[in-house]
Specification:
Layout: H1 8-12, H2 16-28, E1 34-39, H3 45-57, H4 71-78, E2 84-87, H5 96-107, E3 116-120, H6 128-139, E4 145-151, H7 159-162, E5 166-170, H8 175-184, H9 189-198, H10 202-209, H11 212-228, H12 232-246, H13 250-271, H14 284-292, H15 296-315, H16 320-333
Parallel strand pairs: 1-4, 1-5, 2-3, 3-4
Helix pairs in contact: 3-4, 5-6, 8-9, 9-10, 11-12, 11-13, 12-16, 13-14, 13-15, 15-16
């Protein structure tokens, strides 16, 4: 979704506040000399920066909307417009030399228009000398120059740089909208809704929902819950026979615990009369039956137990099979770790 050619109306579905403010600036001809777009990866920061560039450089705009077809729009999309520059980290950081080359480029007359625009991706990864060099650039902006800084780590940007930018915060994508985008890509709804809750990034969600490992992980987690409702021995046997071989890396185990947590969250949403928030939508009938057999207190307590297991996984080097065995026993007994 966030990498395809977009118009402002499409991006507005995901970032209504940001789009409203940017489009008003364009309509009034009051584009700032420097912007800072901050927010999680996959929330549309790059898409918004390219849309802003195309709105400024488009040869055949409809109002403020770029045509997405003219030579300028196509060159911006392909990264080949001579007056639109994108800076990305060189290795682990953005170096002073990169900013200096950018400054040299911007001292030249614009190639085709009376304006220039530059985008700095992962602006938080600038070295101290690069940040100081950029600061001088921002303090004395050239007429017609627009800077757009993108970051997922807002707190790592120098306050002196932040103070010279108009800051826009990009909110996490609504899972329902992300799921709908995945469904449009022929992803089955039950996989789309789950992937949209696991990650806020469209491309990651798309890749995850097409991954056979993820599909099997979902199946195993649902089976584990079924075993938990029966008896300890069956659940423990299933744990070692199915869970442990499938969830091997720490990141996979953490994801597996999240998938288990979603079952309990779904039951809580059903008890609270919020079916629209259910993640395992193809299991709605089962979830309703499971929810009838538990009190809200039991569900919340089980969620706490799973969250405590996640915390233990991420802070200790304890045996994963032992961690999972303890989780099974505590879920059966309904007691949190001490």
């Amino acid at each position: 979704m966030m990498t395809m050619t977009m118009q402002w109306e499409q991006l507005e579905q995901y970032q209504p506040v940001v789009v409203k403010m940017l489009t008003k600036s364009l309509e009034k001809g009051r584009v700032s000399h420097a912007y800072l777009f901050e927010g999680q990866r996959g929330t549309g920061k790059k898409a918004a920066s390219l849309l802003l560039a195309k709105s400024l450089f488009c040869l055949h705009p409809l109002g403020i909307k770029p045509c997405n077809e003219c030579r300028n729009c196509r060159r911006i999309d392909s990264g080949n417009h001579p007056d639109v520059h994108v800076i990305a980290p060189d290795g682990q950081s953005i170096k002073k030399e990169q900013i200096e080359l950018l400054q040299q480029e911007f001292t030249k007359t614009a190639m085709e228009a009376d304006k220039k625009l530059y985008i700095i991706e992962h602006a938080d990864q600038m070295t101290t000398s690069a940040a100081n060099s950029l600061l001088k650039f921002l303090e004395e902006p050239r007429p017609g120059t627009v800077a757009i800084l993108l970051t997922e780590q807002y707190h790592r940007i120098l306050e002196t740089i932040v103070s010279r930018c108009q800051v826009f915060s990009f909110q996490p994508l609504p899972p329902a909208l992300l799921a709908n985008d995945l469904i449009e890509q022929q992803i089955p709804p039950h996989m789309a809704f789950l992937a949209a809750h696991v990650t806020n990034n469209y491309e990651e969600a798309l890749e995850l929902s097409r991954d056979s490992w993820f599909a099997q992980a979902r199946k195993i987690v649902l089976q584990l819950y079924e075993m938990l409702k029966k008896n300890d021995l069956q659940a423990l046997f299933f744990l070692h026979d199915q869970w442990v071989p499938h969830f091997q890396e720490k990141q996979q185990i953490d994801l597996g615990l999240d998938l288990l947590l979603y079952i309990y969250k779904d039951m809580l949403h059903i008890q609270l009369g919020q079916p629209d928030y259910v993640v395992y939508r193809d299991k709605i009938d089962d979830l309703q039956q499971w929810a009838l057999a538990c009190s809200q207190r039991q569900i919340v307590q089980s969620m706490e137990i799973i969250l405590q297991a996640k915390a233990r996984l991420n802070t200790t080097n304890m045996s994963v099979p032992l961690l999972m065995e303890q989780l099974i026993l505590d879920l059966k007994e309904g007691k949190a770790f001490v």
